[in-house]
Amino acid sequence: MRELPPLSALRAFLAACQSDSFSEAAEKLNVTHGVISKQVQVAESWFGVTLFERKGARRVATPYALTLAQELTLALEGVSDVAARHRFGGVNHPLRISVPASFCLYWLMPRIAQFYQQYPDINLRIDSAVSSEQESTGRYDLVIRRQPDATSQIKPFFCDSNALLASPDFISRHPVSVPQDVLSVPCIETLTRPHSWAKWCEAAGIRHVPRSSVHRFDHFYVTAEAIKAGLGLGIGPVNLLQNSLQKGEIEIVFPDIITDAYCYYALTPVGVQKTVAHRAFESWLFSTGNAAG
């Protein structure tokens, strides 16, 4: 690591730049005027330039000093943020997590109380992301996605597959006995999962996908609620909707036809250092995900 200027000199220099006088800077840091003056001299010696010029009885920061102060402030704020996130192992700082909206609603929320019971001192900040928002990972400490990311440290923790789903009420009104019957009953399509029906029909040996009486929704969590409401047949993840299946809100139609095996991954963006809180949440994800999936 390259040599750094003394932190005490930087603090005095920044306080002086942000004050009308060295005396005011001294009050801010609870030191004497002489300490500020001496530490500013140390900073000037280290940087090799004059940072303050005399104007009458006052010493005023030069344009160079003001530019330097602006950059140093940003750098030290970054150091402060890192220190705060890692203090006490990071348990007191919010762990910033991005989760797909459907996964958040149907898997994470029904189980998150278990995590807090196990780790009551860890603070999570969970942001749900729809499909169009899932490209961004830079603001987060941990990201959950269906696709692995080559720029992140990746670990799969939960696997799933798709099946044909319907509510018991819908099946009672629209009985289907063979896969071909799906072409003559109302169906539901998710626009962000455009190939789900084609893959299911291919696995079922059907040459065409449903075209008539098709309800279309933008995101799967809307589709899932439409399926539960009895609006039509829909393609959806079996493990993700396990709670709804166990409650009898939905059921699998033709259970032997399963498509699209895939996994969810816990991604740690490059450059993120794992804190105690990070490792605890990641460990909980793997133990809970493996148990459920």
From TrEMBL:
Keywords: DNA-binding, Transcription, Transcription regulation. PROSITE patterns: HTH_LYSR (PS50931). The keyword Transcription applies. One of its GO terms (molecular function) is DNA-binding transcription factor activity. The keyword RNA-binding does not apply. Residues 5-62 form the HTH lysR-type domain. It holds the Pfam family HTH_1. SUPFAM superfamilies: Periplasmic binding protein-like II, Winged helix' DNA-binding domain. One of its GO terms (biological process) is DNA-templated transcription. It comes from the Bacteria. Belongs to the LysR transcriptional regulatory family. This is HTH lysR-type domain-containing protein. It comes from Morganella psychrotolerans.
